[in-house]
Amino acid sequence: MPLFRRSKPAPVVDTSAxxxxxxxxxxxxxxxxxxxxxxxxxxxxxxxVDRRDRACRTAWCPAHRMVVDERIxxxxxxxxxxxxxxxxAQSIPLxxxxxxAPSLVGWVARQIDADVWRLMLRELxxxxxxxxxxxPVALVFIGVERHRAWERAWKLVTHAGEKHRVSILVTESRxxxxxxxxxSNVLDRVVPPWIQHRRDGESVSAExxxxxxxxxxxxLLEAIQRGLTREREIADTMSRAAGTPVLRVAxxxxxxx
Length: 257
Ligand SMILES: [Zn+2]
Ligand SMILES: [Zn+2]
What we know:
- By secondary structure, the chain is an alpha+beta fold.
- The chain has two domains: about 10-90, no CATH class; about 100-240.
- The protein has helices at about 1-5, 10-25, 75-85, 90, 100-120, 195-200, 205-240, 245-250; strands at about 45, 60, 65-70, 70-75, 130-140, 145-160, 165-170, 180, 185-190.
- The chain has a five-stranded antiparallel beta sheet.
- Strand 6 and strand 7 (about 165-170) form a beta hairpin.
- Helix 3 packs across helix 5 (about 100-120) and helix 5 packs across helix 7.
- One zinc ion (ZN) binds next to helix 3.
């Protein structure tokens, strides 16, 4: 039996997944397409069902649908589902139909990912190695009220045991606001400019949009840098303090010892 398994070439599995996705992308449905101006009646319903068991009420023809993990979605919900780890869509109660928290956090994290790693690597001494760990977008619960939020984190663990954890987070109750954290400190909360414009009913030129997105990313990275610097300063102060005679005495007379 093991022989059969081994002789089965692995790529076959991927190809058939691709085939199934291609079949779904082209499959003919019977519903009118929800895309404005599209007259097709070959639509299939978006497969998204939120945590309150409400289904997305849109349907999409082959030209306007998205296929993620062998399921058909509208563009918005394809964004939500593809931000989450592959098995999450099955195991976590998904955000409300109109909630953008996980897709916003996933999108922003992708934009700043390389720069966050660069900032964290700077915290490493030349002589010490470390481990970089990326946590995918995940559901977390905030505060005593246990508000649902979606978080993406970057972690650095050095051989000396030092740890840094940077994360960005969007709560479902305020799904237009990106929160920047280093450790447990919140360093900034920002509404992305493109969301602010949409709220205000404004439209901006393509150049202005590019420029604003750049500034937005820059602001997040600056907040992260501030947080990392503060952590380093606290660590330095503590290691200096640990070397002073006064503290040594205090340690020696600690009744807990
Ligand atoms: Zn269509
Ligand atoms: Zn949908």
